[in-house]
Amino acid sequence: MAKFKIVFEREKCIGCGTCAALCSENWELEGDKSKPKKLELDEVGCNKDAEQNCPVNCIHVEER
Description:
This protein is 19% helix and 31% strand.
């Protein structure tokens, strides 16, 4: 079982691309919004940077 889970509030996303720039291994732009490639993670990695730098606070990395 994955140790971490990403909760992404897509409706809040403004599509600035900060998450994709900081963590391209798990974030990409899809149309005018960002999108995580995986929601279940064994390691936080750069996703914590994406969470902390999102200007609208729509990315949440939670421990399971």
